[in-house]
Specification:
Number of helices: 25
Distance between the termini: 104 Å
Shape: elongated
Structural class: alpha+beta
Mean pLDDT: 80
Oligomer: single chain
Radius of gyration: 41 Å
Helix content: 40-55%
Low-confidence stretches: 64-75, 635-657, 666-681
Number of strands: 18
Strand order of the largest sheet: 13-14-15-18-17-16
Largest sheet: 6 strands, antiparallel, barrel
Length: 681
């Protein structure tokens, strides 16, 4: 058995109990004594060594009391000391090792001989006294020949303990808690002034022999500086700021393969954009979905609208589907409104698509919408919300926003920079030249050709390489049909199903599948008192088709709008504008009237697109942009031939009592029938 040095009286914990080394026997056994009960404990040196290295036993810090006063913090690593102190410890070690070689009968004689040796070999060496050498040697031996016992203890020099009078300390503590540790804090100098006044007021009620002296300004500053900075910031600025400053930062969520976890968040980009006519539009909102495994952006949405479920829906649709068609559309839109026909397209592919397992979002209201929860449930996507006030949980997507701003947005004309100080005297609105189509193309090109192919420090490679390697090991899961994507990412509501189909936003939707569903739902009832309620999904970007739930077969049945020419490519926002333009009773107008109003509204928007009122200008340009993108407004007027119109009227009669009465008046008749309330049969 290898012998090891364990001096007598060394204290150590064995299985949680404190023992003291009494003696080392000749047969390599260690005699221990329980410090609480005095009970002896005998163990072999081998077992004790194994227990120390296994963590079942450990040396007590009190063993180093000879080199460090009790109650003071002790450095456990020699490397923790600065170089000057380590050099001094190495110098002292030469003396004590020489003494250890010379030590035979007298420690004093060994110290004298060691000093004489070093005085002869090194003339410039500063020699310590015999008493100092003895103290070094005794500390070194008591510590088990640990060099840390020879490190100078400058921190323990000088006077210790509280010098301030207890009454003055109490006054200082009271003033600090009342005036300094609060939201509207006073300055340190003001604290000193209040302390002096408080001490003077307290002395007025005391005899001369009991009066106390006010602390100096430096003492007050030193006291305030000794307070725990976290407690100070907690009292002055609140828990959120204190935690951001002092609480440890942990790693956010991680992923083991592509699309296991995707972070989604919104960001308003630091750029002013303009309309095609040069009028200022403002800043745009960017919604991004980024894969945690590869750091690839799997989808994004750019819009002047504030974040909502619609922006999340558009982002998710793009994230789940292949991107070839999208890239071509973005490039063609850019060329259509620019004179840059010689610009190249995208140099790289955007290979990201597939089903997401977990979508990580923050606690915004749009992420708690029932539409998103229903879509996620049917897609098989799990929604995971970030803990409140834990920004590091979405650090990946936040870091992307910073990269996008620093490497692209801040170099474009019209940038607002990150703050007014960085912007200085740069006139963002005056310099703005880019349209939303320009920015859409530039951001897409940045994601596809630069960000995805650049080196990423977090994953130690480029995002696209990490994505391709990950999908080879674990292929992504596909959505079976593209139609399912439109259904699953639509908005949800409930409506009454009748033989006339579904009425939604004052539009009628009908199909043979709906009539079959209606008959099945009312089948078996002798008296049908009310039409059944069904779940309806609609796309706010296009009211042409809705989907009605067949709960029995767990499918959604499509139904087209009966006003097909009017509703084709029509968004819910534009439909509401048309109804507002027509005024009261717009739910009773024919398709031809609605289509004419839609055309007239387009012409009005062209006239007010340059209005000085920001809201009118924004709404007009939004309407023009959406209509131009659809491109079906100026093609052919609605196909309302007599035969077709008669067919619509026969299947879905739209005539009302008001129209009958108006027709009678034209022919000289008066009606004595009172028109029923809206909704009556």
């Amino acid at each position: 058995m290898t012998r090891f040095h364990l001096p007598e009286n060394t204290q150590l914990f064995v299985n949680g109990t404190l023992y003291k080394v009494v003696a080392l026997t000749s047969n390599d056994e260690v005699h221990l004594s329980n410090l609480e009960t005095g009970e002896p404990y005998l163990t072999s040196s081998k077992d004790l060594a194994n227990a120390i290295y296994d963590g079942k036993a450990r040396l007590d810090d009190a063993n180093f009391s000879a080199s460090a006063p009790t109650g003071k913090p002790r450095q456990t690593s020699f490397d923790a000391f600065d170089e000057k102190d380590k050099s001094e410890a190495r110098r002292r070690l030469k003396f004590v090792k020489k003494m250890d070689c010379l030590y035979s009968s007298s420690l004093n004689q060994a110290a004298i001989d060691a000093g004489r040796f070093f005085s002869e070999t090194a003339a410039q060496e500063t020699l310590p006294s015999v008493r100092t050498l003895k103290r070094w040697y005794q500390c070194w031996v008591a510590s088990g020949q640990d060099i840390r016992s020879l490190v100078p203890r400058h921190a323990f020099k000088g006077a210790t303990g509280e010098k301030m009078c207890s009454r003055v300390s109490a006054i200082l503590l009271e003033v600090t808690e009342k005036y300094y540790l609060r939201k509207n804090k006073v300055t340190a100098r003001e604290v000193y002034r209040i302390v002096r006044q408080s001490v003077a007021k307290a002395n007025m009620a005391l005899p001369r022999c009991m009066k106390v002296k006010a602390p100096s300004e430096r003492s007050v500053y030193r006291y305030l500086g000794s307070l725990d900075p976290y407690d100070v910031m907690l009292a002055q600025k609140g828990a959120q700021i204190a935690d951001q400053k002092f609480k440890p930062v942990y790693a956010g969520p991680t992923a083991a393969y592509p699309l296991q976890k995707v972070q989604c968040d919104h960001h308003i980009i630091d750029l002013i954009v303009v309309y095609p006519n040069g009028e200022v539009l403002g800043r745009l909102w960017l919604t991004v979905a980024i894969d945690l495994y590869s750091r690839m952006v799997v989808g994004f949405d750019l819009s002047p609208e504030s974040p909502s479920y619609r922006s999340i829906m558009r982002c998710l649709r793009q994230a789940l589907a292949p991107k070839e068609k999208f890239l071509e559309e973005v490039f063609q839109e850019f060329l259509a409104q620019s004179d840059c026909s010689d610009w190249a397209g995208f140099e790289s592919e955007w290979p990201c698509f597939g089903m997401i397992e977990t979508l990580i979002v923050d606690n915004g209201l749009e992420f708690h919408s029932q539409d998103l929860l229903d879509a996620a449930t049917q897609l098989g996507v799990s929604i995971e919300y970030n803990p409140a006030r834990k920004p590091y949980y979405k650090g990946v997507v936040e870091r992307f926003f910073g990269t996008l701003n620093s490497r692209l947005i801040h170099s474009l004309p019209g940038t607002t920079m990150s703050n007014p100080v960085a912007r200085a005297d740069y006139k963002s609105e005056k310099e703005a030249k880019l349209t939303i189509q320009d920015v859409h193309y530039l951001i897409t090109k940045f994601i596809v050709d630069e960000y995805s192919r650049g080196f990423h420090k977090g994953i130690r490679c480029s995002p696209i390489d990490k994505w391709l390697r990950g999908t080879k090991k674990r292929p992504v899961r596909l959505l079976e049909r593209r139609e399912d994507l439109s259904v699953l990412t639509s908005s949800v509501t409930s409506r009454t199903l009748s033989r006339l189909g579904i009425r939604l936003f004052d539009l009628a939707f009908q199909s043979q599948a709906l009539q079959d569903l209606y008959r099945r739902l009312v089948k078996g009832n002798i008296r049908v008192k009310a039409n059944p309620k069904v779940l309806v999904k609609y796309d706010p970007e296009n009211l042409m088709t809705i989907y009605v739930e067949d709960a029995q077969n767990k499918v959604f049945l499509p139904a087209n709008c009966t006003y097909q020419d009017y509703a084709n490519g029509l968004s819910l926002w534009r439909h509401k504008k048309v109804k507002s333009y027509l005024g009261t009773g717009s739910d009773t107008f024919s398709e031809e009237k609605l289509y004419e109003a839609r055309q007239e509204l387009y012409e009005v928007a062209q006239q007010v697109a340059g209005s000085r009122q920001k809201k009118r200008r924004r709404n007009a340009n939004r309407l023009l942009t959406e209509e131009d993108k659809v491109g079906n407004l100026h093609t052919v007027s609605p196909s309302l031939e007599p035969s077709h119109q008669d067919e619509l009227t026969r299947d879905f009669p739209r005539i009302t009592f008001e129209e009958i009465e108006e027709e009678l008046k034209k022919n000289g008749w008066t009606s004595s029938v009172v028109a029923p309330k809206r909704g009556a049969e």
